[in-house]
Specification:
Chain A is α/β, with parallel strands linked by helices. The first copy, chain A, has 17 helices and 14 strands. In chain A, helix 4 runs antiparallel to helix 16 and helix 5 packs across helix 14. The longest helix of chain A has 24 residues. Chain A is globular, with a radius of gyration of 21 Å. Chains in contact: A-B, A-D, B-C, C-D. Chains A, B, C, D: Its cofactor is NAD(+). Chains A, B, C, D: Keywords: Glycosidase, Hydrolase, Manganese, Metal-binding, NAD. Chains A, B, C, D: Its EC number is 3.2.1.86.
């Protein structure tokens, strides 16, 4: 019998992979990874080889006994896996560009995770993840699926509702970024910060914020109304908040809430950026090209510091930290996407939610958060409704269902505009939407 | 001991009152009304006398033994009342004009019932209704309060949560209008139509639609996508619906849903109307003035047919029909606003909802509607969140809570714009918002 | 195209059938029954012919154009049926005798509907009803299934959870008996009494009791503490209630609650009766034999008055009244067993409950009852847990699940005694429990 | 400003106190207790002095700087406390004897925590705990109340519902005993065992059982069917379980479940013991007397090993472990009684439940357990109904409510017997039930 863990990373050719490798190296003493399989599709072969060779140099450099395998054969990779991580992007960055630009053309925010762009990303991604689940069922039925492909909340719920894989966790770097942001703002170490996270992926709130177990929520809320001190992400411009609004809201919003509580202002800014210099996807594309140039350097054997500008800070770190806690039954608290089961009262029992969990060998166990404050219930349920309808559209390929999802999205101004945007986007992404082929005839 | 019922109508000087009187005359054989007290405030005295005198002529004309009393003394009126109906408007039509025009000035729909305008209407109205409740508790503790002052849903919930009056029903003419619309569309008698209503006031859906007990929902949905056949109200321009959207939505929306599923288009149209000819409030003001001219005619002793253009069609009819069914324990089905108690799963147990009820002497008993379809849950919960926060703001007079309500309203684009609109509206309505006097210093 | 309704009655050879026929005759003017098919099994052939011939004489006597068909071919009968009523008894009265006597032998109440006897009755009956559902799906997919085979609550829930038939109603004579009892107690006409029924079959409470829409609950509760005025059934000995207990309970219990709130006293009484004269099943058997002797009389062409002593008073009356209201979309209120969907908060959404419903052509629509009073929630949920486990045992034929159901029944004192009783009962009913054949090897 | 913690122990004269002192000594390095106030009532003065002097010797012996204060003045003790622990017993062991013996006299199990005896214990204890809460509100509003006075679940819920103290935790040694039992059974260290606890106090189940994060539930269930391997308590005789029953139940029951799943057998055994040698209370009384003899020994300066036979093993250990984790924000998992808030779906949101929690400085945060398995929902809800009615009786002193609680308890066979037992018990405990004085006139 072999010992050590087999890790499979689907979308292994991603620019994030060096961070993941760095994480597995760091934790190797009590997370005995034997082999890491980096899997990608034909179109990503070149990137897979570049980043895969860097990965090989990294493990060699530090001398840990991890084998790196590069393959386009997903089934071979999945066989007997212990953990499967997914970080693929159907249609790559070019698709993301369309997710952002087509809505903007019609005066609507694209918001590639839970806006119109996110709908199309879900339509492209969910059928692929369900294929992976079917293969896992056969080839590695006991493996855990750690998904960080966006829209991570919808992908997790699709797996929970439409596959036989129950061992799934969705992971996002937004909550960990919020913790890091608070630590920096208050000038304390990250380990001393704990946040009661509750909500949905990219729609998560800190219901309370603690340092050393003592609530500092009021202080954090007071500080972040200042745009200079706003806690945000690479890709979201901080605007600050109206102080009386945020005090009355009385919870700590995530950066993506700018899209909902400031949709008018965000739209204006994105339209301006779009006219001036293109979408975020184009910025990212440029960053990625630069990163891959660095990765090609045969003398490079560490994760290059430039990767942190990429916008996905902490993603891979969060993934390895999660796998480590699961493997060691560490019972520490981490925010992940998992089945609700009443952890957040008022959201569907069977739905995926993003919530602080105790991480055990048996998976994440959500901490009970109770009822959401009245003021945030509506928006959270709106996005959950959108997510559920979007998932159904992805699975059925039904045009009306997709139009329904688009129309009920809070960023979309009418059924008429929804139809215009949807039609143009379905056309643009046709190659990645086989389930809609009939609708699009 | 006196026999017969004492009815009190607060806001008795309303132009709707003749319809109410007509109703009580029509049902007099088994709804033995002994006296009707029309109550108004000093500012409405002239209108009260005009309409009150018409009411007296009406009962005299047909010879029913109903006494009409006109008074500015609300307490005297309430003493030993059996039913109290409320149709007052704090600040009268001038206030409604501001509710509509101030948001429009800032590019936002006013929507005087559950939009920014509705928030201010709630802030003005709720303290008055709670005063009335305190008086009822003392003077007529066994009376039923039948409220049709808008925002009827919020007013009902405010009574349920913040007063000791539990015998309250909120009434709206939207559902009855939808039934009438279906009857006309399908060319059948109104009595043959039954709709499973569920939702909130001005945010109600027909979950199913029946003629003679057989579902005709698909047919209705198919017909109303045509703007010519749309079922709407005097004050809402019909635009039709994207057919695939409505089929996927798979429920029968109310006219006010145009504000949410077509907010962009509605805004455009209202801005155009506003520039051209003012707000709906101004149109209504003109209609009212004409009506009161008619009412003054000492030879008039019936409800004049022109009243139906007023926009509040069926309001008083619905009120008398309700009181009649309650008094006679008729057990027929009518849609009203009442406490949820699980009738609509997923909405708060203690909240007011608009739902089909069996009308008994012991009050309305909601028919169980189960879970709302996924696609509509989010919007309904959003409006309910807005309502709950708005009610809290009305009761506490807290500025931040009012700003929170304004910001989370789906029609408002950002916390920044919310603050601009709110500040201007609080200023404009200052005379009717004593609870905010401290905030406004 | 044929006009008029086709009714199929499974278990048509029952002694109750004349009441059913009488009902269809009574309502014939607006419930146009064309044909009634009485279906039975080979073992019941003789009774089917006796009662069927009486049915034929009854319709002939009054001259209504209803055809009576007698058959052992269930599939032929079901073809194109409009309503299917089920009143069969697997194993006939002999089986009921065992359901009662075997537990008593071990010092435990049999309680043939939701006690140990009820468990075995469920195990025998549920597979048969699911067979009927499969046939209905094919032969009359639009028909309504009106079940009054006991245990009616479990049978209804089994159909809802384990068949594709959604048009099912479970019917019981207990609630109508409670209404009649109140009418008699207060000396008012039955039509003036309305009860808010909520609970489970044979575990239903009147949450409130009205005469002409005014609550008389306190009076009823006060009266029925007197055993002389207790409202009960032929088969349940009235014992009255401790007055302070019933006042604190503050709801109107059903006769079967004697088994739970007075289990000790009931057991004592049944043990005494058992020693003296056998079980209730034996009494019923004797009554039935006498009835069939009467039915044979070729000059008899009406329902004989002796039938009312049989204990199932109002059963068939309730059934025809229900079918009549459904067919005519009458929208009156009747208590039936149907899917909960939140009507009774705290009970499972998908479970069958017994609750006051508005009866429409589209089926029964439960009136929202809200949370059960705290004091009764536990017992109701206990019985529901028992029912759910019992149904699962009936469907799976799993011995452990059956033992679990038996042990958690509130009437059973221990897992040890449960096993003794279960083993003896499985053995005794072996012929009717094919799904347990493997367990019983 | 003083540093270090002030601990107050109400019922400080208990024989358990040395274990508590031992715990505070053990954890002193990172739980800086400055002073411990042992409080008792006049009747317990002698015991307080004996055990208090032992406590003083214990801290002196090891040289930790903890001051021990003995007092009968509760208010003086509570002033500025950080943690208040309650382990008092109203009426002392003599009262427990009556709780057990009076029901037995009438053929009913006393079960002093959630049976008839538990009802009377609740009636005596809850008014006292609410007095303490009122004093805490004034004298130490930021303190945590750690209650281990039984019935701990009812006491916790009474505090949550009827006091202004929200910082309350109920503690019991049953769950820790179950963990210890599993550890011993499987021969692993306690730290490797984790159980998903869910239910109520003395009605708690292990939904799953893990060693090193891997489920061993099936193995545990299989082992404990053997009475020799049953996990039980000093005061509950192990009887083993019917294997097929326990496998179908599929959760790990607590020792007190013997009273419910084996009530017949337990009753038989207790009646036998009662006739032979008296109640458990008498056995405990004898043990206590022996312990106090030991405690008097001025050379004794450690917790004597004989204390472990007392039956309350791990109680004080659990208490100190909990306080330690709270103080240090340890975030480890411990089972306690706390407000549900959806942690266990289907139980009331505001009720106390016993559930695995993450222990933080901000209190216990329940891990979400989801729906209880169908088979156990009924019994748990039955006991919760009983608890809620019992608490209401304790607070109101209403005789009918007390009779209702007694009658709905699953161990009580009828309203009639309930009344007999209740009347006798109210009489016997009259001195400690001032709120019932009116009823008992």
């Amino acid at each position: 019998m072999t010992t050590g863990l087999k890790i499979v990373t689907i979308g292994g050719g991603s620019s994030y992979t060096p961070e993941l490798i760095e994480g597995f190296i760091k934790y190797h003493s009590d997370l005995p990874v034997r082999e890491i399989w980096l899997v990608d599709v034909e179109a990503g072969k070149e990137k897979l080889e570049i980043v895969g060779n860097l990965a090989k140099r990294m493990v060699k450099e530090v001398g840990v006994p991890i084998e790196i395998h590069l393959t386009l054969d997903r089934k071979e990779a999945l066989k007997n896996a212990d953990f499967v991580t997914t970080q693929f992007r159907v249609g790559m960055l070019a698709a993301r560009g369309k997710d952002e630009s087509i809505p903007l053309k019609h005066g609507v925010l694209g918001q590639e995770t839970n806006g119109p762009g996110g709908l199309l990303k879900a339509l492209r991604t969910i059928p692929v993840i369900l294929d992976i689940c079917r293969e896992m069922e056969e080839l590695c039925p006991n493996a855990w699926l750690i998904n960080f492909t966006n829209p991570a909340g919808m992908v997790t719920e699709a797996v929970l509702r439409y596959s036989n894989i129950k061992k799934v966790v969705g992971l996002c770097n937004v909550p960990i970024g919020m913790e890091m942001g608070v630590a920096k703002l208050l000038n304390v170490d990250h380990s001393r910060v704990r946040i009661d996270f509750a909500g949905l992926n990219h729609m998560v709130y800190g219901l309370d914020v603690y340092v050393d177990g003592v609530s500092v929520k009021d202080e954090v809320i007071s500080l972040i109304t200042d745009p200079e001190k706003s806690i945000t992400m690479q890709n979201i411009h901080a605007m600050g908040w109206e102080p009386e609004f945020l005090q009355a809201l009385n919870v700590f919003p995530c950066p993506y809430h700018n899209y909902y509580y400031k949709s008018g202002d965000m739209l204006e800014k994105e339209l301006k950026n779009f006219k001036e210099g293109g979408t975020r996807a184009e910025v990212v594309k440029k960053l990625e090209d630069e990163l891959f140039e660095l990765y090609k350097d045969p003398t490079l054997a560490i994760k290059p510091p430039q990767l942190e500008k990429r916008g996905g800070a902490y993603y891979s770190d969060a993934a390895v930290r999660l796998i480590h806690s699961m493997y060691t039954d560490k019972r520490d608290i981490q925010p992940v996407n998992t089945i609700n089961r009443g952890a957040i009262a008022g959201l569907p029992y069977e739905s995926a939610v993003e919530v602080s969990c105790v991480i055990t060998k048996d998976g994440p166990k959500p901490i009970t958060m109770g009822e959401l404050p009245v003021a945030i219930r509506g928006l959270v349920q709106s996005i959950k409704s959108f997510e559920q309808v979007a998932i159904e559209a992805a699975v059925t390929g039904d045009y009306g269902t997709a139009l329904l999802a688009m129309t009920i999205n809070p960023l979309v101004p009418s059924d008429r505009v929804a139809k215009v945007i949807l039609d143009e986007m379905l056309e643009a992404h046709q190659a990645y939407l086989p389930q809609f082929s009939y609708s699009m005839v």
